[in-house]
Amino acid sequence: MNDFAPAQAAELLTYPAGYGVVRECLEQQQQAATRSGVARFFGVNPLHPDARSWYGGALGEMRVGEVLERLGQEWSVFHAVPVGTRGSDIDHVVVGPGGVFTINTKRHPGAKVWLGERMLLVAGQKTDHLRNSRHEASRAAKLLTAAAGMPVDVRPLLVLVAINSMTVKRRPSDVVVITDSQLLRWLGKRQRVLSDEQVRQMADAAGQVRTWHKTERVVVDLEQIAAFEALSHEVERARTRRLLWAAASLVGLIGGGLAAANAALGALVGL
User: Fold this and answer.
1) Nearest-5° angle of CA 205, CA 208, CA 210?
2) What does the DSSP 8-state code read for residue 98?
């Protein structure tokens, strides 16, 4: 991926992957009470319930961001692209010889996914993932066409992170649904549809803040980034403690069961 974008694109590129959901996660996390020493000892999850979905979303977008970093120099990638007036954003916009793509990232740890032409189910529950992916691509196409001064076709990708499995009944014709482990290979196999000049013009347009949002001012708060990293470490430490306690409990149950069995056997032998 090209880390050195044109000057007019540099402002948007300062947003790291997942920045929008990181901010929302931290805002919701302010409601969380300080954990007691006992809670820390037993690994109680430090995340406030209202922050958990945002936290998972941030991890998903960061994971996809890491994958996109491995693209070649001919590709330009923009993260957390601000659109609309309600603080919404497009997770990732990718521009390269193979075309222009919006990426909607959804993280569903351990979930079984069912995919049909018009519907995507996660653990048996309907989602709006396909509809939202279409909407993002349509919006991006209109904005980029206006900014670039040429028709820009945008293809929507829905990238699923950390799922258990995906059963495909019939793939949608207008949304590409893949996992994070398939993303790099999928993009790499795209045939060239844009010239170098078209790629440059479209990447320049995508890199302009005013293309997407008329009043957005790009400011990356490094303290928020550090706060999320600290929270992530705390969450992982708590998870590790819970796993250790679960393992210890299992060992205790097995040990207790063996002791009981030995006692019973001894009693039988003594009869």
Assistant:
1) 110
2) T
Q: Which tens digit of pLDDT belongs to each residue from 167-225?
A: 999 999 999 999 999 999 999 999 999 999 999 999 999 998 889 987 767 778 999 99
Crossing angle between the packed helical segments 49-68 and 19-29, to the nearest 10 degrees: 160
Give the domain ranges of the chain. 7-221
Could you list the beta-strand ranges (E) of the chain: 76-82, 89-96, 99-107, 112-115, 120-122, 125-126, 154-161, 165-168, 176-179
Q: What pTM did the predictor assign?
A: 0.86
Q: Taking CA 67 as the corner, what is the angle to CA 173 and CA 217, rounded to the nearest 5 degrees? A: 90
Q: End-to-end alpha-carbon separation of the chain, Å?
A: 77
Amino acid in position 255: G
Cα 40 from Cα 263, distance rounded (Å): 37
Q: 10 Å Cβ neighbour count for 166?
A: 16
* Alpha carbon distance 245, 251 (integer Å): 10
Q: How far apart are CA 96 and CA 74, in angstroms?
A: 6
